[in-house]
């Protein structure tokens, strides 16, 4: 008989021996462009805090005001007694921002995928997923009873082939990230939607890294391609990354919201967001529309950082967004580079197999609106030193 202690120990030993064991770094200061890690003041290139909202005074003020008025918790699941009027206000503002008929907020982006995919898909349906889609999509599809197929990353011929080879009278769903989190590339939604429509399929876009980054005022990848009013395009995403808080959302038709309220298990069995979260999110939606210069700074910083990395000779893997991978090849080199950068005042995390393919280990950098030119120049100087020390760029 296997004991709990032996099972846990064996799994930890397996993770350590395979180089997959994780010990997260701990931030010793707020999530900002400059923070403190391992006793060092560092430039932070590791967070998803695209717009600098995680510690923004306006969001903090609104969160505090909502706590004073509404308390610290919702007190129940949304379908019993946990829906406050502020929850519905947030969802109305989010739907208006996204240009959809409705929106529903979940506890996280991860559970949003589980809830929406599980509610929509039935036996006899077909779902076709990009091979580089996020783990939350993969896990959400594991719970669905539909036939599941994968198409090669952003390969329209392969998507066409898979849809043609698997006809069905059920619902057909093409699932893609809007922005892919490891490579920083954008899904070609104009092409994906066209292929999906030829086969009578609905397009489902996880816009975790596109919302707040792409489209007018950060309305997202779907808006960037002009499909925000189309009923055969479903938007889901997170309220953490660019929005700086926590949660997930599904945006689509009025009936989609009604269905999810009645069927999405993560919604049905989770307590509603605490008022502080709701207040901060309402402030974020207001702020991104009121101050377009925030997104302008994000993209100005992104263009500068990418151009300088390329000038130094680094491979940024064709990234199109503030997600900027720097390729080091083998995992050992990426992890060594991460340690060396930290020693020089830059917090950036190495990523290797199985998160990314073997031979494409990298450090994933995310530039934010909060970074100054001095922050980026310090990081670039550290990268130049590390790249030369490791032989990744010419000395």
From TrEMBL:
N6-(pyridoxal phosphate)lysine modifications at: 241
Pfam families noted in UniProt: Aminotran_1_2
Coiled coil: none
Record key words, sorted: Acyltransferase, Biotin biosynthesis, Ligase, Pyridoxal phosphate, Transferase
Lineage of producing organism: Bacteria, Thermotogati, Deinococcota, Deinococci, Deinococcales
UniProt-listed InterPro entries: Aminotrans_II_pyridoxalP_BS, Aminotransferase_I/II_large, AON_synthase_class-II, AONS_Archaea/Firmicutes, AONS_Archaea/Proteobacteria, PyrdxlP-dep_Trfase, PyrdxlP-dep_Trfase_major, PyrdxlP-dep_Trfase_small
Pathway recorded for this protein: Cofactor biosynthesis; biotin biosynthesis
E.C. numbers: 2.3.1.47
Name this protein carries in UniProt: 8-amino-7-ketopelargonate synthase
Function: Catalyzes the decarboxylative condensation of pimeloyl-[acyl-carrier protein] and L-alanine to produce 8-amino-7-oxononanoate (AON), [acyl-carrier protein], and carbon dioxide.
Sequence similarity: Belongs to the class-II pyridoxal-phosphate-dependent aminotransferase family. BioF subfamily.
Record's subunit section: Homodimer.
Matches recorded under CDD domains: KBL_like
Catalyses which reaction(s): 6-carboxyhexanoyl-[ACP] + L-alanine + H(+) = (8S)-8-amino-7-oxononanoate + holo-[ACP] + CO2
A GO BP annotation: biotin biosynthetic process
Species name: Deinococcus yavapaiensis KR-236
Residues annotated as domain Aminotransferase class I/classII large: 41-381
MF annotations from Gene Ontology: 8-amino-7-oxononanoate synthase activity; ligase activity; pyridoxal phosphate binding
Cofactor list: pyridoxal 5'-phosphate
């Amino acid at each position: 008989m296997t004991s709990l202690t032996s099972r846990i120990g064996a799994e930890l030993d397996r993770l350590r021996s395979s180089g997959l064991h994780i010990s997260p770094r701990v931030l010793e200061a707020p999530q900002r462009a400059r923070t403190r890690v391992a006793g060092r003041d560092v430039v932070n290139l590791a967070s998803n805090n695209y717009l600098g909202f995680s510690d923004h005074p306006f969001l903090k003020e609104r969160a505090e005001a909502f706590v004073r008025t509404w308390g610290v918790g919702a007190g129940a699941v949304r379908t019993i007694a946990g829906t406050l009027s502020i929850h519905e206000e947030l969802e109305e503002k989010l739907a208006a921002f996204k240009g959809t008929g409705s929106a529903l907020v979940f506890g996280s982006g991860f559970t949003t995928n589980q809830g929406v995919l599980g509610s929509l898909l039935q036996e006899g349906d077909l779902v076709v997923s990009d091979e580089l889609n996020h783990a939350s999509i993969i896990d959400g599809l594991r719970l669905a009873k539909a036939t599941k197929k994968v198409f090669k990353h952003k390969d329209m011929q392969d998507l066409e082939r898979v849809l043609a080879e698997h006809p069905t009278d059920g619902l057909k769903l093409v699932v893609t990230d809007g922005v892919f989190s490891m490579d920083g590339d954008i899904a070609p939604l104009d092409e994906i939607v066209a292929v999906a429509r030829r086969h009578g399929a609905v397009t489902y876009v996880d816009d975790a890294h596109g919302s707040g980054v792409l489209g007018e005022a950060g309305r997202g990848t779907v808006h960037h391609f002009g499909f925000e009013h189309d009923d055969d395009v479903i938007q889901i995403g997170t309220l953490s990354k660019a929005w700086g808080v926590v949660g997930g959302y599904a945006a689509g038709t009025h009936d989609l919201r009604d269905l999810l309220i009645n069927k999405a298990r993560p919604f049905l069995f989770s307590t509603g967001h605490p008022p502080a979260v709701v207040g901060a999110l309402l402030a974020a939606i207001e702020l991104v529309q009121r101050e377009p210069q925030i997104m302008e700074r994000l993209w100005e910083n992104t263009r500068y950082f990418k151009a300088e990395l390329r000038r130094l000779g680094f491979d940024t893997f064709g990234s199109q967004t503030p997600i900027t991978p720097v390729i080091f090849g083998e995992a050992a080199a990426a992890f060594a580079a991460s340690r060396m950068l930290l020693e020089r005042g830059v917090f950036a995390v190495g990523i290797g197999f199985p998160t990314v393919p073997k031979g494409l280990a990298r450090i994933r950098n995310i530039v934010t609106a909060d970074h100054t030119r001095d922050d980026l120049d310090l990081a670039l100087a550290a990268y130049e030193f590390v790249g030369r020390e490791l032989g990744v760029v010419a000395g």
